[in-house]
Design a protein that fits this description.
The complex is a heterodimer of chains A (117) and B (922).
Chain A (H helix, E strand, L loop, with lengths): L1 H19 L2 H23 L21 H31 L5 H14 L1
Helix pairs in contact in A: 1-2, 2-3
Chain B lengths: L1 H22 L4 H16 L2 H5 L4 E8 L4 E7 L1 H24 L6 H20 L3 H20 L3 H32 L4 H11 L2 H18 L8 H4 L5 H10 L4 H9 L7 H23 L4 H22 L2 H32 L15 H15 L5 H14 L11 H30 L13 H19 L5 H10 L17 H18 L1 H8 L8 H23 L4 H22 L17 H19 L3 H21 L3 H23 L10 H22 L7 H14 L4 H9 L1 H20 L15 H28 L7 H17 L4 E2 L3 H23 L7 E4 L3 E4 L1 H24 L17 E2 L3
Parallel strand pairs in B: 3-6
Antiparallel strand pairs in B: 1-2, 4-5
Helix pairs in contact in B: 1-2, 1-5, 2-4, 4-5, 4-11, 4-15, 4-19, 4-20, 5-6, 6-7, 7-8, 7-9, 9-12, 11-14, 11-15, 13-14, 13-18, 14-15, 14-18, 15-16, 15-17, 15-19, 15-20, 16-18, 16-19, 17-18, 17-19, 17-21, 18-21, 24-28, 25-26, 26-27, 27-33, 27-35, 29-30, 30-31, 31-34, 31-35, 32-33, 33-35, ...
The chains are: A mainly alpha (117), B mainly alpha (922).
Chain lengths: 117, 922
């Protein structure tokens, strides 16, 4: 239930930011949705077992958390970082091309260009 | 030696670009030698084949589907293979003389050799899947060769690719169906099992698919138009692919599969009907061409039609005649193409309107053209005549086929149409010869070409004469071929003179009629009208093509919008519809779910939520970019704390580091941006947010926390240490169990970094301008002397212990990246290879460790354990993890450099005198 609430909150806020529009909101919204997706995957593994899956003998195996979702989430986080960095690059490029005050409009008109292609 | 022969052709394609570097257009000669050797290797097995055996070589290929790499040589494949390699030798020794010195020959020779290898593989393939693979390679290489002839070639090449590509898909369909029904992909077994395994419905599906595959490849109505279009390719390509070999692949396919359809009247009627129609149509079109290459192209369409019709007759004699015509056609058509190329080179034109009286200047060329044209026209004593006689006989004998009910009219009708086709063929053959070589000589300074140029055309022209005089030389191979396509062995008796037979009478009628047509050509065409047989197929093709593109654009437009908001709220609506629809339409869809397990929610979660909820709400309402960024970092920290509490220390550590680095990288970019205003409608945003949030939360609540540990979880926990020697199960999953996944993931990181690099220097800040002021930097610089080495040591330790305890390549890479960030912020210069070098090294090492696994154990990325003194047990997955580490470091460095202007390239900064460089790597 706790993860469900967190996921609802994070996807809600992420969607809000994305739909409001604007380059910065887009990046922040993307980051929040990334958190939400990671929590969904962790939740899928079950959160009733919460001992780290290190099998050095001291861990009771039936209490260990599911390691597979953890592996997925770990790489997902790094990929989110990669994509965030890339998005930032795009934003920075647009910012450099046009006066900063027009950034948001610039971002939207660029988008329109794609739509009409 | 079948595999050796095919492999040699593959090797030829590989070394062709190298040879071209040294030999240029003369590369054709060594390649011709390779073709010749390949042919000799094949002929080693020929005596065995001729004595009735089938030579087979087989290797395991795709074990899971029981697919074998089987090559087999029987009479049918021997006939085609000899044509592929024989004509190949001729065309490749012709090309060096024909090609312009300035022509870009690298691609031509490489693709031509690749094509020949694929064509050889196609006719030798003993497995259905292998057949399809080689079939597709021939399609693609034909496309490349036609498109390679410059901008004029692109559209014809696209048409040809689409048409023959459709045929390729049809072949895949037929092959899959056949393999599924007969439970084997071996061609011989599949054909042998087919009568029992295939129902009438199966036949009704497989038959049309094979017909489409063959008709598109062999340019039958209504798909014929790609072939004349393909004539924009250079003449050696036209002579080889579009006359002698590629277009015969369809005939080969029909011959190969005809045993499946012996009793299916529809198959025979389709083949005979379309084949004869194409034969007459193509011949008429050839008659009205002025460009000699177009004329020959339509002539090829016509001759292919005759071959298809002969396969359609379905008697032993008709299949023998088809095989004979395949051989005869390859000989005279390749000759004619090469000679037209020579005329084109010498006289500067291949248009009949410009050519006249050439025999006075080029008597040998004229003589050879006459010989080949006579063979095409079916004059005795050339092999074309024998083939024509045999086909007349076969058409007349149609009623003896088992699928007919002794309808005598069928044979008469087929023979009559064939006679008309033959008469038209004679007329356009005569036109080539008389049109170009007779009449007054209008051009000056024309000479016979060199013998080197002529020789490749002499060989097949003379062969056509020899085989015409002594056709019995072909008895053995023709008999064997018709036996291979499912008929009991009969002794053919090919001969120039059969006495006063009906076929001879038909020949005489055809020749007389043909001569009349030749001399009355103008009035005949006028009577037919200019437009009558003109095909509308190309226009229909173009219309469908553009309509498809248009449809795609229209469908795509519905998903596009000027505003991100509008696009994304569509996703929200879809999500809502799916969820509500799912619950409503599928009653009881959640019945199987148990109650939520007791420990899923624990008190500590409440504490986390108390921190998280206000942070996220503040973030969503933040008015400045920097405030939002700080809040985003805070949210990340809370979640990583939570992950630690949930028993995921590796994930928590990763997220923590990523959050820090994101703030470092993003702060300089975002701080330059204005306070952001909401642009889209806030109502729409609020509704979307509530819908998406509520549904996601509901889905998590309904679908998770209701079952015990998964069997995969148990498996990994129980087996990880035993199988990999590592105790950190998460890390063993990353580098040992699911290494291929991880390889894919670091490739994504690699691509993201490349994207940044490709975007050019996009630093927002000016050079040398740090994030901090001079004073603050000085303080940090002192501190960094301690911090950076500590971080690097931490990275090394985390990397080393990753297999057993929290750590590993990802985390170590992020820690090392943090060290770079500290260095960047404090203005300390770090000497490192350039980001793209680090990235490439990382991905290269990861791939190399995969190959190492392949070499050591047989599967890609399979890890191996070694016992090393002092260090203890090591595994090769550590090498893979090193690749991961480097890619992550490369990504962080790229981001710092490109986004923040920190940590710039050493090369660029050689002159920039940094007071305090820290040497990080040797």
């Amino acid at each position: 239930m706790s993860l469900a609430i967190a996921v609802a909150l994070l996807t809600g806020a992420g969607t809000w930011l994305l739909v409001r529009g604007g380059a910065v909101r887009l990046i922040l919204g993307f980051i929040l949705l990334g958190h939400a997706a990671n929590l969904v995957i962790i939740a899928a593994g079950g959160t009733d077992r919460r001992v780290a899956p290190i099998v050095d003998g001291s861990t009771p195996l039936d209490a260990a958390a599911d390691p597979l979702p953890q592996a997925f989430v770990l790489t997902a986080i790094v990929i989110t970082f990669g994509v965030t960095v890339y998005l930032l690059g795009l934003v920075a490029r647009i910012a450099k091309k046009s006066p900063s005050s027009e950034l948001e409009e610039e971002f939207d008109s660029d988008d329109e260009g794609v739509g009409n292609r | 030696m079948l595999a050796a022969s095919v492999a040699l052709m593959g090797a030829g394609a590989l070394i062709a670009p190298l040879l071209v570097r040294y030999l240029g257009r003369y590369t054709g000669y060594p390649l011709a030698l390779i073709f010749l050797i390949s042919g000799v290797l094949l002929l080693i097995d020929a005596p065995e084949v001729m004595s009735g055996a089938t030579v087979t070589e087989s290797w395991q290929w795709v074990e899971t589907f029981d697919v074998e790499f089987t090559l087999r040589l029987n009479g049918l494949s021997l006939l085609f293979a000899v044509l592929v390699l024989g004509v190949g030798v001729l065309v490749l020794s012709y090309a060096p003389q024909y090609l312009d010195p300035s022509y870009e020959v690298g691609r031509l020779y490489t693709v031509l050799t690749l094509f020949a290898g694929a064509m050889l593989g196609l006719v030798l393939a003993g497995d259905l899947i292998l057949l399809v693979v080689f079939w597709e390679i021939t399609t693609l290489s034909s496309f490349l060769l036609v498109a390679g002839s410059g901008t004029t070639g692109v559209w014809p090449a696209v048409r040809a690719l689409v048409i023959t590509g459709i045929g390729g898909l049809a072949l895949v369909g037929a092959v899959v169906m056949l393999a599924l029904r007969t439970q084997t992909t071996n061609i011989e077994q599949a054909i042998a099992l087919a009568p029992e395994a295939l129902t009438a419905t199966d036949i009704a599906i497989i038959g049309p698919l094979i017909v489409i595959a063959a008709f598109t490849k062999s340019a039958q109505l209504p798909f014929h138009f790609w072939l004349p279009g393909a004539m924009v390719a250079v003449t050696p390509v036209s002579a080889y692919l579009h006359a002698a070999t590629l277009v015969k692949a369809g005939i080969y396919l029909l011959l190969l599969f005809s045993p499946l359809f012996t009793e299916v009247a529809a198959w025979h009627i389709t083949l005979m009907g379309i084949g004869l129609a194409t034969a007459v149509f193509g011949a008429f079109q050839a008659l009205r061409q002025w460009d000699l290459k177009s004329l020959l192209a339509y002539s090829t369409v016509s001759q292919l039609g005759t071959m298809v019709a002969l396969v359609g007759v379905g008697t032993s004699a008709s299949l023998a005649a088809a095989a004979l015509l395949v051989a005869a056609h390859a000989l005279f058509k390749a000759t004619l193409f090469m000679l037209v190329g020579i005329v084109d080179r010498e006289a500067g034109s291949r248009n009949l309107a410009d050519l006249s009286g050439l025999w006075r200047a080029m008597p040998i060329t004229a003589g050879l053209t006459g010989l080949a044209a006579m063979s095409m026209a079916g004059f005795p004593p050339l092999v074309g005549f024998v083939a024509k006689e045999e086909s007349f006989y076969a058409f007349l004998d149609t009623p003896s086929a088992s699928w007919t009910a002794d309808q005598a009219w069928l044979g008469v009708a087929a023979a009559a149409i064939a006679v008309i086709g033959a008469a038209l063929t004679l007329a356009y053959s005569a036109r080539i010869f008389f049109g170009a070589f007779f009449g007054p000589l209008t051009q000056r300074n024309l000479y016979e070409p060199s013998w080197l140029f002529l020789a490749p055309a002499v060989v097949p022209a003379i062969a056509g004469l020899v085989l015409g005089v002594a056709p019995w030389l072909l008895n053995g191979i023709i008999d064997r071929t018709s036996q291979d396509v499912g008929f009991p062995l009969v002794q053919s008796d090919l001969s120039l003179w059969h006495g006063l037979s009906v076929a001879l009478g038909l020949s005489i009628i055809a020749i007389t009629l043909g001569l009349i047509i030749h001399f009355r050509r103008e009035s005949l065409l006028r009577w037919l009208g200019q437009d009558t047989p003109r095909s509308i197929a190309p226009e229909i093709f173009d219309r469908i093509w553009y309509a498809t593109l248009d449809l795609g654009a229209r469908v795509g437009r519905t998903a596009h919008s000027a505003s991100v908001g509008v696009q994304l709220s569509g996703v929200a609506i879809l999500l809502l519809a799916l969820t509500v629809g799912g619950f409503v339409l599928i009653p009881g869809s959640t019945d199987g779910l148990g109650p939520v397990l007791p420990d899923v929610m624990q008190p500590v979660d409440v504490a986390i939520l108390i921190l998280l909820v206000p942070a996220v709400i503040l973030l969503a309402r933040a008015r400045t970019a920097i405030a939002a960024l700080v809040l985003a970092g805070f949210v990340g920290l809370i979640i990583s704390l939570w992950l630690l509490l949930l028993g995921a220390p590796d994930v928590a550590l990763t997220l923590l580091l990523v959050e820090i680095l994101t703030v470092v990288v993003a702060a300089p970019v975002l701080s330059r941006l204005p306070a952001h205003r909401g642009l889209g409608s806030s109502t729409r945003a609020a509704v979307s947010a509530v819908v998406v949030g509520a549904i996601s939360g509901l889905a998590v609540w309904v679908f998770t926390g209701r079952r015990e540990a998964s069997s995969l979880s148990d498996y990994f926990l129980a087996e990880a240490e035993g199988l990999t020697g590592g105790t950190n199960v998460v890390n063993t999953i990353l580098v040992d169990f699911r290494g291929l996944d991880t390889l894919g993931e670091i490739t994504v990181l690699f691509a993201a970094a490349l994207g940044l690099l490709a975007a050019g220097v996009i630093t927002v800040k000016g050079r040398g301008e740090g994030v901090l002021g001079q004073g603050e930097q000085a303080v940090l610089r002192v501190g960094s002397r301690v911090i950076i080495p500590l971080l690097l040591i931490a990275a090394a330790v985390l990397f080393w212990r990753g297999h057993d305890e929290p750590g590993g390549g990802f985390i170590a890479g992020l820690v090392a990246g943090s060290a770079l960030a500290v260095a960047g912020i404090s203005g300390v210069h770090v000497r490192l290879p350039r980001p793209r070098v680090i990235l490439a090294l990382g991905l290269g090492i990861a791939l190399a460790s995969g190959v190492l696994g392949q070499v050591l154990g047989g599967t890609f990325l399979e890890p191996f354990k070694f016992d090393v003194p002092v260090l203890g047990s090591l595994t090769t997955s550590l090498i893979f993890d090193l690749g991961v580490f480097l890619v992550v470091v490369g990504l962080v460095r790229t981001a710092l450099q490109r986004l923040d202007g920190l940590d710039s390239d050493t090369e660029e900064d050689e002159h920039h005198h940094d007071p305090d460089p820290v040497r990080v790597l040797p």
